[in-house]
């Protein structure tokens, strides 16, 4: 899981400037990251046909570049927004930073523990109950069982879905899943909180509550990287913004400048 997260030593040797000390306050450094997905061109009708074709090397692949030479950095304690159309590559870069995907090229340096709230569903098992998912998701985030036992009530209380904890997740609404995901991810004070759109699916009341918790984490020094389509939210919360367009960084700079440019488009 952690293979994409370079150690400080490794990254310093990749990038001589990092050794100079100047980069100490960079908690995330993304340098020339490209991500290519390989997709089979042929449609196969069955698993058997797939393996037969694969053995005969008859399957042709097409590469799709979801990210091209993406570079940006995040300072410790900063709130950085990610904007861009659907398919721009926002979720892909967040998954790379979280260590879930390994980039095809480039270097990724993350100097802190990450609590990722990725696209809905990642990290959850829809056939298991809310309670079971708290434990699974907590384990993915690196919490021990003892720790989750201690925090369980707090997680449930914040999520406000207590009566549904023993119901399989497939019966939850997307808003309920978002509540649970956010409650689990923020029960600890992570150094880096990654929020991928999930907050936009909850109801207004929970969104406010989640924002209050995000603010609380931010004022406690947590670095936040988040995707939102609500520009006023981005303007209000972020110091800097990365605008991705078709897998490339279209613009990276102060929130106001980038949002203004994005809106005039
Ligand atoms: N696992 C994958 N395999 C193939 N293509 C993918 C995969 N994940 C994402 N993509 C493609 O990469 C592009 C960027 O996707 P994504 O990062 O989800 O964009 P965004 O979050 O900005 O909407 C899209 O065209 C998407 O279809
Ligand atoms: Mg996305």
- Percent helix range: 25-40%
- By secondary-structure content and strand pairing, the structural class works out as alpha/beta
CATH homologous superfamily assignment of the domain at 8-113 and 190-264: P-loop containing nucleotide triphosphate hydrolases
**How many separate helices?**
9
Question: Can you describe this structure?
Answer:
This protein is of the alpha/beta class. It has a domain at 8-113 and 190-264: P-loop containing nucleotide triphosphate hydrolases (Rossmann fold, 3-Layer(aba) Sandwich). 36% of the residues lie in helices and 26% in strands. It contains 9 helices and 9 strands. The strands form 2 sheets. Strands 5-6-7-3-8-9 form a 6-stranded mixed sheet, sandwiched between helices. A 3-stranded antiparallel sheet has the order 2-1-4. Helix 5 (145-159) crosses helix 6 (174-185). The longest helix is centred in the last third of the chain and has 16 residues, at 204-219. The radius of gyration is 20 Å and the shape is globular. The model is unreliable at 1-21 (pLDDT under 50). Bound molecules: adenosine-5'-diphosphate (ADP) and magnesium ion. Residues 90-91, 119, 196 line the site of magnesium ion.
